[in-house]
């Protein structure tokens, strides 16, 4: 059905570009309890505003916007602390607790704070095609995988998983000129994509090791290259217990492991859904 304004801060958009994200796949597997039958999926999109609620002041009909996968009211304690995923009236709603954006139109709550204007000079360009990845995958991996992991220039990094989240982590890692990057993956076509990305100018001074778990003992390979020390930062993107165990095995003492794939049946799923921090050590 055509979405309608339900709350005065809502906007309705005509969906122009969208994606199928790893979270959508996970939802199809019914690994997310909040998903109900006939829920329309989709959380990343660019759209044109076609209707606005009477409390919307920053958005107008006809504007083209990037829709954030995380809805934020802009006023609650969490939003003022920039913890938008914990917004008391928002968070992960689209394609999760309300219908998402994989359709012709979608309702976006808190339109003033959950959308970002796209300048008209990039409409219908390749740049705009790329911008749709800024709805969720790129900023999520940058924040939770790298920034939360204390990323610094000239670090050694391992990315566990060669899917779209792993690729996003690799692309974002290029911003910090890492000394070494280890990619642990399974699928040959995905690993070939990493080889293509590794040829970019941002990795000219980086040693990139692409390790196939079909061929290599990837944990031993990382430890051998690092003289059994491990890496400074592990970004775990598979959302599986095996990925988590690999991360523990290849991180150096006092290093960092971040998890950006903790949906589904992962034993540490709540660390993602509730945004709490887990630390460990020996007294």
Give a short overview:
The chain has helices at residues 22-28, 77-80, 111-114, 126-131, 137-147, 164-173, 188-198, 218-225, 241-250, 269-273; strands at 11-18, 45-52, 64-67, 105-108, 115-117, 156-160, 180-185, 207-212, 231-236, 251-259.
Describe the structure.
- With 283 residues, the chain is α/β, with parallel strands linked by helices.
- It contains 10 helices and 10 strands.
- The strands form 2 sheets. Strands 4-1-2-3-5 form a 5-stranded antiparallel sheet. Strands 8-7-6-9-10 form a 5-stranded parallel sheet, with helices on both faces.
- α6 (164-173) links the parallel β6 (156-160) and β7.
- α5 (137-147) crosses α6 (164-173).
- The longest helix has 11 residues, at 137-147.
- The chain is globular.
Please render the helix and strand layout as text:
Layout: E1 11-18, H1 22-28, E2 45-52, E3 64-67, H2 77-80, E4 105-108, H3 111-114, E5 115-117, H4 126-131, H5 137-147, E6 156-160, H6 164-173, E7 180-185, H7 188-198, E8 207-212, H8 218-225, E9 231-236, H9 241-250, E10 251-259, H10 269-273
Parallel strand pairs: 6-7, 6-9, 7-8, 9-10
Antiparallel strand pairs: 1-2, 1-4, 2-3, 3-5
């Amino acid at each position: 059905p055509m979405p309608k304004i339900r709350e005065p801060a809502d906007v309705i958009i005509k969906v122009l570009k969208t994606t199928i994200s790893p979270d959508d796949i996970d939802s199809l597997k019914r690994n997310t309890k909040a998903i109900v039958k006939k829920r329309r999926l989709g959380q990343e999109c660019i759209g044109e505003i076609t209707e606005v609620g009477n409390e919307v002041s920053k958005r107008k009909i006809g504007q083209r916007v990037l829709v954030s996968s995380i809805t934020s009211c802009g006023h609650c304690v969490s939003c003022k602390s920039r913890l938008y995923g914990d917004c008391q009236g928002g968070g992960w709603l689209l394609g999760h607790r309300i219908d998402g954006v994989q359709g012709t139109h979608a309702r976006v709550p808190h339109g003033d704070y959950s959308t970002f204007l796209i300048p008209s000079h990039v409409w219908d360009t390749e740049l705009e095609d790329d911008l749709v990845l800024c709805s969720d995958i790129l900023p999520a991996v940058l924040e939770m995988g790298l920034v939360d992991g204390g990323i610094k220039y000239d670090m050694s990094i391992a990315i566990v998983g060669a899917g779209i989240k792993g690729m996003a982590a690799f692309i974002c890692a290029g911003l910090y000129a890492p000394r070494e990057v280890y990619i642990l993956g399974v699928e040959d076509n995905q690993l070939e994509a990493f080889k293509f990305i590794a040829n970019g100018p941002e990795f000219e001074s980086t040693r990139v090791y692409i390790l196939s778990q079909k061929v290599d003992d990837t944990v031993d390979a990382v430890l051998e290259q690092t003289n059994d020390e491990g890496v400074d930062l592990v970004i775990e993107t598979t959302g599986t217990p095996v990925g988590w165990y690999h991360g523990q095995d290849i991180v150096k003492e006092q290093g960092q492991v971040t998890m950006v794939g903790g949906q589904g049946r992962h034993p540490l799923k709540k660390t993602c859904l509730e945004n709490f921090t887990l630390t460990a050590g020996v007294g």
